[in-house]
């Protein structure tokens, strides 16, 4: 039988995969970054056991990429966001974080606590 | 050669398909409906020639579906939203609208004006 | 520090959330079910530590829903699929499964083995 | 009242926006490119008035981007695909095409014929 902590970590992973693949590809610009970040947080906080989601769209990185482009907006991808999330499952609290590591958006367990 | 009006209608269709398939499946509840609607509007307004987007999430319909369900949230689908959009392309303004028609979310041209 | 087993479970959750939210909303009919299932498997097997993905689209349930509808296709959602996935992370193998439980597509840890 | 040709062009646009935003962000590698292309074609061909969809994933461009990356797969985006689509609406046939133009995936009307 999987332990409570293992299940809590599984739940935390589900939220991260959901957030990323639901919203990857969304048209985003410095002007629309804020409403997108709020919607991502509120949408994923609906999911079971999700205590809090904090999405930070990296507006400076986005603006600098658009300055070198013929496009006025980009498609949302891991390069343009940092995410922190806390899941609580039967008394175990799991903290997770996403940031770029080389060319991968790395999703990491930060801590697992009873 | 396609006419300006035909191209304007093509552009209007692109925006509708984008909005629908980017956001279909997003976890949504009465509490998160508003931030999702704002993000959908702002995201699609980034796209070329898109003058305005108005998304209305049908919170009463959503609440009544959730009342009959073991779930606390639903996945966004056409049944839970009405959308109006205006595209302007080289002087032609196209108004469009989405609402349910039987079991299809019907996307319609409302008017095409020089 | 999270344990290897906890990290393996987190990785397994990421794959499930990714699969679900990337493909939820895809137009699907009995005719296109098979190519969609193969693409879902192959896409998620690209992700790190993902050993195998098996997607079964429930064509009979889909056909029976379409028989009662004015639509010729549906949007993919949890009601129309069962998924099994195996993740292997630093020697720990995690088996997971998704099937409906009431109105939720429940994603479950089946086993965690060294 | 919008003309038949204008409605046909609107329908063609819907299919393009749907295809792009349903599948943008999907993990893709040279190995999984083919099943993804087939699933995209079959999924969008379900939509009303859609006669044919042809998706070509640019495997050489994808392989060359991955050769410069620490990642083994990419997220699907316009840079990695060319798409041709034909819509038929009440006797009007619309041919469309997507390819990159600078940094935008440009979706174009090729022809509109009675």
Automatic annotation (TrEMBL), chains A, B, C, D:
Family membership noted in the UniProt record: Belongs to the archaeal dihydroneopterin aldolase family.
Positions bound to substrate: 11, 107
UniProt organism field: Halopelagius inordinatus
Gene: mptD
A Pfam cross-reference name: DHNA
Catalytic activity: 7,8-dihydroneopterin = 6-hydroxymethyl-7,8-dihydropterin + glycolaldehyde
EC number: 4.1.2.25
UniProt GO MF annotations: dihydroneopterin aldolase activity
Descriptive protein name: Dihydroneopterin aldolase
């Amino acid at each position: 039988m999987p332990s409570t902590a293992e299940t809590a970590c599984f739940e935390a992973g589900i939220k991260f995969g959901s957030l990323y693949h639901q919203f990857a590809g969304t048209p985003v610009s410095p002007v629309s970054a804020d409403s997108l970040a709020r919607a991502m947080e509120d949408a994923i906080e609906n999911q079971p056991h999700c205590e809090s989601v904090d999405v930070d769209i990296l507006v400076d990185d986005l603006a600098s990429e658009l300055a070198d482009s013929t496009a006025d907006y980009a498609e949302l991808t891991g390069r343009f966001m940092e995410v922190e999330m806390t899941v609580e499952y039967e008394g175990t609290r799991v903290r997770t974080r996403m940031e770029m590591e080389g060319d991968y958006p790395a999703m990491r367990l930060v801590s697992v606590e009873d």
